[in-house]
Design goal:
The protein is an alpha/beta fold. The chain is 23% helix and 33% strand. The protein contains eleven helices and 30 strands. A six-stranded antiparallel β-sheet has the order 20-21-22-29-24-27, with no helix packed on it. Helix 3 packs across helix 7 and helix 6 crosses helix 7. The protein starts with 9 loop residues before the first strand and ends in a 6-residue tail after the last strand.
């Protein structure tokens, strides 16, 4: 495998737009699973980007992501020593067909001979060399104007995945096969038949093709997707290191997956079988299956004690969790929420999230710790009229120059040194020193030092929401 070569450069297009609701409360809309270390020390996005680094024939990745996650994604790629070709910002989610169309338009203009590898940023692959080998086989078929799927050899009768029925091997691309049909998530009996036949593969939603060929097929089968993507890209604008798609044009794009829009309709579909230890990490049970189990079949992570428990998945991201005499449960604790579910019902966790959203609960979408381009804040206490936060500002970073209509703020420096703009004043604060920001006074917090700055902020007022911020200046160009 090490000596394999690819005639055309393969550009990984990494999609990062999902919210991972089935992995709540760890994964949430404002900080979903791809931005978290769910299956290793690195985040899933970092793991995905690093699969291709250093492999001959692969170019720098192109990222298509949610606007809300842009600064976190940029920081994580930098932390993984990955320099992307571009980070394209979607103003709202419009599924994978539109994201792929935007990427294809960009790559076709930059280099018509490029091959485009479309992949989610929140999947796990254990056998990376085997995966790269499968991609190289797929490249032969893609060079013959095929749209190629990487099909994963099934290890069980899984009802949560789609399937690909493979046909005959392609003479012009050994190792790749024609596709007879795509099958949506089957019932258990049908899935058992599929696995027993040996002719069906899991649809991992990993695709390789020439950008121009994809656009030709999109023009045939879903022309409105291509038209909207083209207009959104034509009216896009640069924003720092990001490419921001036009909101109005992109909002008109139909929300449809690449599977429905093209792959299930085209006569150019091909598939390369791969046995690579793939998983979409789509539920807590998947992490239980992949985890290291104790003598009673429990998988634990964090500060956890189990007595007389069997086959449980228990994770704590902070506080002690003690479980006694329980079986086949998922127990996940964060600092602001605890999930307890039967392990055979964990696919329904998204229903809890839907209920939280209907109730207007912030736990549905954000953690107690919320990341910003300058660092993070974490809510320590919240009551009517009062909120206490821990704020950490990265070295060289600053919050916006701002004011509030309905709240005053008290700041106490815990560690580091703060540079404060307060009305017409500018001054420094050291550890154990404090200041007060009245309602309506413009202010800014800045860290000019080389170490993180931590402060405790006490907010007092009639309304304490994050939307009571009027930004006057912001180096990150937020509204």
């Amino acid at each position: 495998m090490a000596n394999e070569k690819t005639a055309q450069i393969i550009v990984p297009v990494l999609l990062s737009g999902g919210s991972g609701t089935r992995l709540w409360p760890v994964s949430r809309a404002l900080y979903p699973k791809q931005l978290l270390p769910m299956a290793g020390e690195l985040t899933m996005l970092q793991e995905t980007a690093r699969r291709f680094a250093g492999n001959e024939g692969f170019g720098a990745p192109l990222i298509v992501c949610n606007d809300e996650h842009r600064f976190t994604i940029a920081a994580q790629l930098q932390g993984a020593d990955i320099t992307p070709q571009a980070i394209v910002l979607e103003p709202m989610g419009r599924n994978t067909a539109a994201a792929a169309a935007v990427a294809a338009l960009i790559l076709a203009e930059r280099s018509p001979s490029t091959l485009m590898l479309l992949a989610a940023s929140d999947h796990v692959i254990d056998d990376v060399p085997g995966f790269v080998h499968a991609v190289r086989l797929a490249a032969r078929a893609a060079a013959q104007r095929r749209l190629v799927s990487i099909g994963v050899k099934p290890t069980r009768a899984e009802t949560g995945y789609g399937y690909i029925n493979r046909g005959t091997e392609l003479a012009e691309a050994p190792g790749a096969f024609a596709v007879r049909r795509f099958v949506e998530k089957p019932n258990h009996a049908t899935a058992q038949d599929f696995v027993a036949s040996g002719q069906y593969l899991w649809n991992a939603s990993i695709f390789l093709f020439q950008p121009q060929i994809y656009m030709e097929e999109l023009e045939k089968h879903a022309p409105e997707v291509l038209a909207s993507a083209r207009k959104a890209l034509a009216k896009s604008r640069r924003d720092l290191d990001f490419l921001r798609l036009d909101r109005e044009e992109f909002s008109r794009c139909p929300s449809i997956s690449i599977d429905y829009a093209v792959m299930e309709r085209t006569d150019r579909a091909a598939v390369v079988p791969a046995d690579i230890g793939w998983s979409d990490v789509g539920s807590w049970s998947v992490l239980w299956e992949r985890g290291v189990k104790d003598a009673d079949g429990n998988v634990v992570a964090g500060d956890v004690i189990v007595q007389d428990g069997k086959r449980n998945f228990i994770r704590s991201d902070g506080r002690l969790v003690a479980a006694l005499g329980v079986e086949n449960l998922v127990i996940v604790a964060t600092n602001d929420a605890v999930l307890v579910a039967s392990r055979d019902r964990d696919q329904d966790v998204k229903r809890i999230v839907e209920q939280l959203m209907k109730s207007g609960r912030s736990e549905a979408s954000q953690h107690a710790r919320v990341y910003r381009p300058w660092g993070f804040f974490e809510t320590l206490h919240h009551a009517p009229g009062t909120q206490v936060k821990l704020i950490e500002v990265n070295p060289g970073a600053a919050l916006s120059l701002q004011y509030h209509h309905k709240r005053a703020e008290h700041w106490v420096v815990v560690s580091g040194a703060a540079w404060i703009a307060r009305g017409e004043e500018n001054f420094a604060l050291k550890e154990n020193e404090s200041t007060f920001i009245p309602i309506g006074m413009r202010h800014r917090l800045e860290n000019r030092g080389e170490q993180p700055l931590r402060i405790i902020e006490v907010q007092v007022g009639s309304y304490l929401g994050e939307d009571d911020i009027v930004r006057l200046e912001d180096r990150y160009k937020r509204n």
